[in-house]
Design a protein that fits this description.
By secondary structure, this protein is an alpha+beta fold. Helix content is 65%, strand content 13%. It has a five-stranded mixed beta sheet with strand order 2-4-5-7-6.
Length: 352
């Protein structure tokens, strides 16, 4: 439920101050017209007291019912009714206080249209203030609900993308284990242990959307150890990472699909040894990571964003940073390079 403006101490203080000032001005006006100060004070107190009560009730009612844009004419009807409910009872009360004062009763009668006009003006002003206040409150609540829904949707999509990265790698690993069980049982047992460690680490990272590059590389080594069992001496990995970049944060499990893509293009189309290069440097408040693999232009035609792995990385980075320029692919000669940029400003601002 939206808060009443009177629930805000600053607004309530302004509201009280306004009515006090207005009551004093009305009393001074009545004194100027020739009334005794006692009558002027009582007249002002009764009139403005009823006006304040009526405006408070109006503010409370609008907290539960706010006219729509096409029905703002309701405000005029409500204001006319409310101003009548202020002036008529005030006149009746004042007449009962001074029933024998002919001069005062005549002044009260002659000033009735002016009193009603001022009451109408006050009620309209209060109505407009309430409409603006409650409309702004509803807009804020709607925006908050929208942002919360978008955040949940984004989180669900990120979770789904991370989940989809594992099945085919798991199937390949299990097929390799199955092939090793009969001929090389010890290697099969080692691969099972490595696969278990890798999956356990993956589950732990589900609770941490961001990890340091050092943690990510350690987890990536488990994946590479499994792949090296599958491909043997054919797979060589060279890592060149600046010490300054090891502590920088990146989205968890962001490197595996990129390295998997490099292995796919590097080994599936060749028969010799293949060296995968992983490089990372810190540059201008962002982490630059490149993954390089050789390929045979005659048997492979790598393209930017090819395969689910790279598209999932692009999608994840877009959901996190709202940028589409963080992943790039380039084929130069017989070398295929994937470059990702991880901005660090987000993390710095969150820490401060």
């Amino acid at each position: 439920m939206t808060r009443s403006p009177l629930a805000v101490f600053r607004f309530l203080r302004v509201f009280i101050a306004w009515w006090v000032v207005w009551a004093v001005l009305q009393a001074l006006l009545l004194l100027w017209l020739g009334l005794e100060w006692q009558k002027a004070v009582i007249d002002s107190a009764v009139s403005n007291g009823l006006s304040a009560v009526c405006c408070l009730l109006l503010c409370y009612v609008m907290q539960f019912y706010l006219p729509q844009k096409e029905r703002y004419w309701y405000l005029l009807f409500i204001s006319i009714t409310a101003s009548s409910l202020i002036v008529l009872p005030a006149r009746h009360i004042l007449e009962s206080i001074y029933p024998d004062d002919v001069a005062y009763l005549l002044l009260l009668k002659n000033s009735f249209p002016i009193r009603w006009g001022f009451a109408l003006l006050l009620v309209i002003c209060m109505s407009v203030i309430c409409v603006l206040w409650y409309s702004f409150q509803e807009q804020q609540e709607t925006e908050q609900r929208k942002n919360a829904a978008e955040a949940l949707s984004k989180e669900a999509e990120l979770f789904a993308l991370r989940r989809q990265l594992q099945p085919h790698f798991l199937f390949n690993s299990l097929n390799s284990i199955s092939a090793l069980v009969g001929s090389r049982p010890q290697e099969a047992r080692n691969m099972i242990q490595q696969l278990s460690d890798f999956l356990r680490g993956t589950i732990k990272k589900e609770d941490n959307p961001f990890v340091t590059l050092e943690d990510e590389l350690q987890h990536l080594q488990l994946y590479l150890a499994i792949e090296q069992v599958r491909f043997g001496h054919r797979l060589q990995v060279q890592t060149n990472v600046e010490d300054a970049s090891l502590g920088q944060l990146i989205p968890a499990l962001i490197l595996q699909p990129i390295v998997e893509n490099a292995i796919k293009f590097g080994l599936y189309d060749t028969t010799g040894e293949v060296k995968i290069g992983i490089n990372a440097i810190a540059h201008e408040r962002q982490l630059l990571i490149t993954v390089e693999n050789p390929f045979d232009p005659e048997t492979a035609q790598p393209r930017k964003g090819e395969g689910f792995g790279l598209s999932s990385v692009q999608r994840r980075l877009f959901l996190i940073f709202a940028r589409t320029d963080l992943v790039s692919a380039e084929a130069s000669g017989k070398l295929f390079t994937i470059t990702i940029k991880i901005p660090q400003l987000l993390y710095e601002s969150s820490d401060n």
